[in-house]
Specification:
Elements lengths: L11 H10 L4 E4 L10 H11 L4 E5 L7 H8 L3 E3 L3 E5 L19 E5 L1 H18 L2
Parallel strand pairs: 1-2, 2-3
Antiparallel strand pairs: 4-5
Length: 133
């Protein structure tokens, strides 16, 4: 898997062709945007042009609410989601001058939410199955 460094390229088409030539089999990308929803147009173009040569793995900001839009807009069948939740970290509450979490999550740590993961997989599965009806 080639990671999201792809989202920093100037020319996504020639860059994708280079990755294919190098034998990369999958690219994690948000379509050169911060969030995949915002990069959906490019994701759809990349899937259409290169989907038979390399697997496009859409990621960044994808959840149970927006995966339906992405599946229908792009035709991509692979998605990455953190299904993130935040919990208070009791070890960093007192006298700590740093935090792993950015505002508003100072003093928290992130983890995978079982509930969000189940919702995401259920939503994604239903939408992908709809493509084959």
């Amino acid at each position: 898997i080639f990671h999201r460094a792809f989202d920093c390229v100037k020319d996504p088409y020639s860059s994708m062709e280079k990755l294919i030539d190098l034998g990369v089999d999958r690219v994690l990308t948000s379509g050169l945007k911060e969030k995949a929803v915002d990069g959906a147009d490019l994701l759809a173009k990349l899937q259409s042009k290169y989907g038979d040569k390399i697997q496009i793995l859409a990621g960044s900001g994808i959840n149970a609410t927006n995966c339906s839009y992405l599946v229908n807009k792009t035709g991509i069948l692979q998605y990455h989601s953190s299904c993130r939740a935040w919990r208070k970290d009791p070890t960093t509450i007192s006298n700590v001058s740093y935090s792993y979490g950015a505002h508003p999550y100072e003093g928290d740590y992130d983890l995978v939410s079982y509930k969000k993961a189940v919702e995401f997989v259920s939503a994604l599965k239903g939408n992908i199955e709809d493509l084959y009806k």
